[in-house]
Amino acid sequence: MAEANESVVSEFIFQGLCASKELEIFLLLTFSILYLMTVVGNIFVVILIITDHRLHFPMYFLLINLSFIDFCLSSVTTPKLIIDLLKENKTISFGGCMSQILCVHFFAGGEMVLLVTMAYDRYVAICRPLHYSSIMDRQKCICLVLISWVIGFIHGMSQLILILELPFCGPRVIDSFFCDIPLVMKLACMNTDTLGIVINADSGVLATTCFILLLVSYTYILLTVQLHSKGGSSKALSTCTSHIIVVVLFFGPVIFIYLWPVSITWVDKFLAVFYSVITPLLNPAIYTLRNKDIKNAIRKVMNHM
Question: What is the reported pTM?
């Protein structure tokens, strides 16, 4: 079926973010700077944690994986967006479109589960501090991270397999800057209402379940923090606040896109830019600006320069 699809529709055309040439130049500069900052920021976090032995704790091991996922997620869509802003014809091959769908859902699904894992790590650290080292040992951390990657891969493959079953033979124009499933599905030469429910349920259930787990976890943690000493609660509250900000910024747009019944083009584009371009940049900034251990590690690096 995939080969048949590709023989009928060999490429798709992106409408992009806007029709104004002057605005496209501004967007080109903006997204180039944002992507450069995303790459540098996330890679810096990874290198900083690996090289500083004082950051060799489970929370920072999970943060390494989060930064790597954010780097990969941004790299799936942003470089193509930047290149297309330089071109008159914004096209992507059928295979490239399917690869974008797989990678976006792979990394986004993995990040959702990883954020739940990070909430579990904070729960153990704050609510069961005496048992933290035994519960969050190296083997368990690696296992939890692998589970995140595996669930992300299964989620991405399930979405891709459902899309590959569709026949594409009509219009090829996607009103966006990357291949997102709801928009690609509209181009199929068949009724996709039932399939749309299945696909949205797949993404929606994963996102909503993870989001609810995170809300329950952090609510419980914050209630527990109130029983701690003033100094301990201040540090714990700062750490949890950082995590909560990341959760809201990532899950908000994703849940809106897949669960909101009415599609509004400019809103969908804004949210797509937010979770695929902006959020991967904000995550390292949030963790570095609000985390005392990482700020101390950065000062150490700056003092040796």
Answer: 0.87
